[in-house]
């Protein structure tokens, strides 16, 4: 998990794909945390991505560091604990202007049942399951 977390942090921005009905939805994300041994992402309950994740928790993430790309396929499971929210907000203090732990809007999702693949044009793909 640490390797995945470090790579996502290094890239800073990744693209999160969700599903809405039969339409894929992709948007840039920047929040990634390692909490209780799981990769977690953060959003607000008022956002469409929240509704999409609750209706269909299957997600894909893709990011690129200039040489190698990482694709993650996982199931996003809501972690409602205040500790998860506080941990994320400590990692991203700039979010505190919009979110507060326990505010009823801050939402954390843990990535579970995942497959992560590192790939490039010069090396064979390497897969990690979690």
TrEMBL record:
Superkingdom as given in the UniProt entry: Bacteria
Cited InterPro entries: Pyridox_Oxase_N, Split_barrel_FMN-bd
Stretches assigned to the Pyridoxamine 5'-phosphate oxidase N-terminal domain: 2-84
Name of the featured protein: Pyridoxamine 5'-phosphate oxidase family protein
Native organism: Candidatus Eubacterium avistercoris
């Amino acid at each position: 998990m640490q390797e995945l977390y470090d790579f996502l942090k290094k890239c800073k921005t990744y693209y999160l794909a969700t599903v809405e009905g039969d339409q894929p939805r992709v948007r840039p994300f920047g929040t990634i945390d390692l909490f209780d041994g799981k990769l977690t992402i953060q959003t607000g309950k008022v956002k469409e991505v929240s509704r999409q994740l609750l209706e269909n928790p299957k997600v894909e993430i893709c990011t690129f560091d200039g040489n190698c790309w990482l694709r993650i396929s996982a199931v996003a499971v809501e972690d409602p604990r205040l500790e998860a929210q506080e941990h994320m907000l400590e990692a991203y203090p700039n979010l505190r202007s919009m979110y507060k732990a326990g505010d009823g809007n801050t939402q954390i999702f843990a990535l579970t049942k995942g497959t992560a693949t590192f790939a490039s044009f010069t090396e064979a793909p390497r897969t990690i399951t979690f």
